[in-house]
Write a structure and sequence with these properties.
There is one protein chain. This protein is mainly alpha-helical. The chain folds into 3 domains: 123 residues, no CATH class; 82 residues, no CATH class; 112 residues, no CATH class. It contains 15 helices and 9 strands. The strands form 4 sheets. Strands 5-7-6 form a 3-stranded mixed β-sheet. Helix 1 packs across helix 3, helix 1 crosses helix 4 and helix 5 runs antiparallel to helix 7. The longest helix has 35 residues. The N and C termini lie far apart (70 Å). The C terminus is likely disordered.
Length: 430
């Protein structure tokens, strides 16, 4: 790489080779990177806008048309939305469009002395859920070639800390997060969690600071379904039992309930935590200027895509956000004359999140989480009471049911009744 600098008298120096880069963590590094990277990106944007196939299959946000903006501006916003520093997630609705995009990127970067890592670049096909029965055979392997490079196809890859897979499903990501949470527990098992004399509050605080954070990394951007909440709850329940040091008695299958474990440790459910973080994140995004990329992505809508069909509603981030507000009773205390959202006197939630820098919004969300947990515990108590009533109603109807046969059946029934009594005591939420 060659460069020249402007001297004090305003003249440019002679060209000289650049042989020394910046040190790791230097504050000048991101500035110089952006200045240098802007030049090849502008050429890439121009060439993209001149290719009809790329423009036709370009994935971009459905945004209001801005005055004076044309095709070049739309392509520029789409390209900048695919970048994060020197990483990029190039997206197209066709294999031909993707190949053309990668060819232009490789060629332009090569002109500037940069290279696209063929080994680190992979392709992935986001599949549509098949409604046909039986499902059709899988499509052929996607082969993308660009300027002499050939990229391998994969079914999943990790990008910016999150796991992207061809089904767009959270199950694999949650399984990976669960393993990371248990790795945190094992890291401190000998020194803390397996020591009977270790302070219980220290165990609980380390669980929240390490394991729960590893389990819920990036959860504010998830769009989980009910089964995903169940998976997270199962992992969280087991983590709590490990911290409490609970051991089931031999011959029994009932363990300390999730509600009891939460009360013992003094924390909220994992579902409440996910919903709370998503609402707080939504408030922070709403306070950003309209042109910021996070706000455009989280509140925007992609052009194109497949219709999920009748009876299969789409589950996206905005629908989850609406459900969070419903579960946290965002309109609690609101009236027709004085509407409010989480106690903030505004009609629209995005405006309520901007009041006083989001301080009232933050406090209102925390109060909503408390209401959610109070209702959740009340529901668990009622479910426990109904199970106890049902077990009491299903007892023996006559003396023949309890009459011992050579002493064996009666003993087994008595043991079963004792076990039921233990389960009922364990299941009761105190």
């Amino acid at each position: 790489m060659w460069a020249r600098v402007r001297t004090d008298d305003g003249e440019l120096s002679d060209w000289f080779p650049v042989t020394q880069g910046l040190r790791q963590g230097c504050s000048m590094s991101p500035l110089l990177f952006n200045v240098f990277f802007a030049a090849p990106l502008e050429i890439i944007v121009t060439r993209f806008s001149q290719d009809e196939v790329i423009v036709r299959d370009l994935v971009y946000l459905k945004e209001e048309e801005r005055r004076g903006e044309g095709l070049l501006d739309r392509v520029r916003r789409a390209v900048w939305g695919m970048l994060y520093a020197d990483d990029a997630g190039v997206v197209s609705k066709s294999a031909d469009g993707l190949a053309r995009m990668m060819t232009i990127i490789v060629e332009v970067f090569r002109e500037f002395g940069l290279t696209v890592s063929e080994r680190k670049t992979e392709t992935l096909v986001m599949r549509v859920k098949e409604r046909q029965r039986p499902p059709p055979p899988p499509p052929p392997v996607l082969t993308i070639e660009a300027a002499g490079q050939r990229y391998a196809q994969t079914t999943e890859f990790r990008y910016l800390g999150g796991l992207v897979n061809e089904q767009g499903d959270l199950t694999r990501e949650i399984n990976h997060r669960s393993k990371a949470a248990w790795a945190c527990i094992k890291r401190y098992a000998t020194e803390l969690f397996d020591r009977p004399g270790a302070p219980f509050r220290l165990k609980a605080r380390l669980l929240q600071a390490e394991a729960v954070e590893a389990l819920l990394y990036g959860c504010m951007t998830w769009s989980p379904r009910r089964n995903h909440y169940g998976m997270l709850q199962t992992t969280h329940h087991r983590l709590l039992l490990r911290v409490i040091g609970y051991r089931r008695k031999r011959g029994t299958y009932r363990q300390l309930s999730y509600a009891q474990a939460l009360k013992r440790v003094g924390c909220q459910s994992v579902e409440a935590t996910v919903r709370q973080r998503r609402l707080l994140f939504a408030g922070a995004v709403a306070r950003q200027p309209d042109g910021r990329l996070p706000k455009r992505l989280m509140f925007g809508e992609l052009v194109g895509g497949e219709d999920p069909g009748q009876g299969n509603p789409e589950q996206n981030w905005l629908t989850c956000l609406k459900d969070d507000m419903k579960m946290f009773e965002a309109r609690y205390g609101s009236t027709t004359d004085k509407p409010s959202v989480f106690g903030v006197p505004k009609l629209v939630w995005s405006e309520a999140a901007k009041v006083e820098g989001g301080v009232p919004w933050h406090a209102g969300v925390l109060q909503g989480a408390e209401r959610f947990m109070a209702s959740w515990h009340k529901g668990k108590e009622e479910a426990s009471r109904q199970r106890a009533i049902k077990r009491g109603d299903s007892g023996p109807k006559n003396s023949l049911d309890t009459a011992p046969i050579n002493g064996a059946v009666g003993g087994r029934k008595e043991t079963a009744r004792r076990e039921e009594s233990k389960r009922e005591e364990t299941d009761r939420v105190t």
